[in-house]
Structure formats: structure tokens, C-alpha cells
Amino acid sequence: MAFAGLMGSNPIPGVIKKSDGMAKKTEKAVESKAEAASSEKEIKGIVRIAGKDIKGEMKLRRALMQVKGIGVTLSSALTKIISSELKIPKDVMIGELSDDQLDNLAEIIGNPFKHGIPERMLNRQRDIDTSQSIHLIGTDLIFRTKQDITNAKDMNTWKGYRHAYGQKVRGQRTRTTGRTGMTVGVLRKAMLAKAAAAKATGAAGTAATPAVEEKKPAEEKKKE
To answer: Structural domain of residue 100, as residue ranges?
Structure first.
């Protein structure tokens, strides 16, 4: 009884501290799981930007690179501008953005020159039709590229001529690369191999015939 009284009056301090620490850890783990679950619920599965379906788990910079017409350098610059204008962190997931924020994001990437992107980073500088510097993305970029190729063909320029015949346009070599249609070099090698094999068999046949002819006179001599 005395021992029990001593233990009850003077508990071991180390045991109490450990139990308190474990309780705090479990509470933090539960809170972190709850926060993760709530954040997962808020993230959209698929986000559509400029006609491109993007996974909502992608970070902002990487998600912008999925859009046709936006490369590594431009995506980095746009991420900084979007982060400052929309008041969001740079490493935010694209699925966490609201509909209004996505609309503002689409407006920024559609008109980057108005939001501080330098002219040298645009893909349509001093356009021939409008004489303005713009940046095309998505289906607009695909359509304008096809239109430029058609105009080059109609004007019979050297680039248009190369496009019409399916050849390299920017001065690349064509001796070993850029083959289209039938691979002439491979067929030529096969034909040469067949010719060499036929020649070898023909030479073997001609070498065997004289031996037979030489035997015939010897047999005739024996008969005589």
C-alpha cells in the first residue's frame, strides 16, 4: 500500500512526457490527413486551357507547358506574372484554381504582351496582316501555320517548293535523313545482295561443268 501511495503521489515524469508527445503527434497526423483530404476534394481532375485537357495535379508551370505554343522559357515568365496578378503561389496545382482564376489565366496566356512579356518571346512578331506582335496558342497556332505554308506554296517560294515536295525546309541534309515513301537506299542494298548471290551461284556452276567435260574424253579413250 505504501508503494502504491508513493507511485500515486510521485508519478514518473518521463512516462507522462512521452504519452503527451505521442498524443500530440497523433493529433497532428489526424489534422494533416484531414487537410490533405480537404485539399484533394478541392482539386479538379481535368482542367481545360486553350483547348487542351490538363491533369489537375500538375503544377502551374508544368501545366502551362502542355499548351501548344508555350515553351519552357515562356511558361516560367507567365508563371511569375500569373502568381503576382492572381495572388497565388507559383507551385500551386492547376486544379486548385477557381473558374474565375482560370478565366484570368486564359486571358493572360492569350495576350502575354499586354501583361509584360517582351516582344522577343512572342511567336508572331510584326504580323504581315495586322503588323502587330501577337502570340498564338492552341488551334489558332495550328491554323495560322497551315495558312503560312499554303501561302508559301502559292507564291512559289523556295520554302513553298520544299514543302510541296515534302523535303527539308531549313537547310538540313537529306542524304541520310528525311526519307519519305519508299526507302531507295535499302532496296538498292537488297538488290545488290541478290545480284552478288546470283553471281556466286553462277560462278560455282561454271566451275563444276569443266570437270564433267574433262571426264568425258577419258571415258571415250578407254572405249577406243
So the answer is: 27-121
